[in-house]
Specification:
389 residues; mainly alpha; 20 helices
Length: 389
Amino acid sequence: MIYAAASRLINMGTKVKVPSVLQRIPHSVRVAFLVVIAAKVLVFAIGYAAAYMHGSAAPLTILAGQFNKWDAPHYVYIAQNWYVNTGDAANFIVFFPLYPLLIRLFTFDFNYINLSALAVANACSIVGFIYLYKLTKLDFSDKVAQKAVLFLSVFPTAYFLSAPFTEGLFFAFVIASLYYARLGNWSLAGVLGFLAALTRIGGLLMLPVLLMEYLHQQHWKPKKMASFNFACIFIVLIGFLIYLDINLQVTGNPFMFMEIQRVHWFNTLDPVAGFQTAISWATNASYPENITIGLAPLLFAVFGFATVAVGWARRFRPSYLLYMLLTWMLAVSTSFWISVPRYVMAMFPMFILLGTLTSRKTVNVIITIAFSVALCYFTFLFASGQWAF
């Protein structure tokens, strides 16, 4: 039922001449791809409308700038100027380097650098969706893979997969890394994990996750740990060490990013304070901050923990479960839960889990509608210049 419209469109396309390359793509994959594109079109349409309502500009300018909010301009600044240690830009060292480097690589005219940032983020997110489908298919049916892609496409914070943020790039690397680990290609899994660790702090979690997957595949026999494949897993750590070296070269302190998080962004490792602050915002702040900074982080924190608990009860694959747990712990570990809804989305195995839990069409429709409504609402807030995770 969920894919009926998409399937009809695909079937209509068979009446027209379709390139042979596309004909070789399975029907189920084409349907999933169409769902991803439809979700992105929806996000861009809402973002464009919101940006248009809050300022007049040329269509291309609106398109390039509709999601260029909050952290996004900082990535663009780094792409243009690299890291500097003066003025407000000194605080940008907290942003990891790989996404700005890719923006710079695909920018041929700085007048269009915002479009380059959008293009990189969206292209990478599509790669992430492809690998989510492929990863799910290793264990489950086409329908489960389709639902996993669908639920991620319309997740309430999925607009970050279309915005110039690191989500698209990060998803592509971590999902592909785990996919190749499942296939036993540990060198490629390690390199992709290394790239994830150059993209976001969460990429470092791939080290214990890949270790868990390796041990699971070796049936927990320590004698098989001393091997080239086992050593490849530690390539992940190199990405984070490079980031620490950048901190050292720019600021003289390899851990300066932690100090700036504490002083400039008022963020420390204090989950209790984060929980209390979210409650305070939810009960005392005015609209919409009472929702976006208060209620939503609390709800998403509970939702994330619930998926971990369900995965544990259903004996989900150990590496998937560990990744979900560590990502959830990272999301709620700080003294300010402002971005919990965005970081909970990074628990990508939960979309596979949801796909296995929802066999009834009515439940699928309810989840899809609920996610989609929230996605539209938060996309509009974000594109309007208000904080939305």
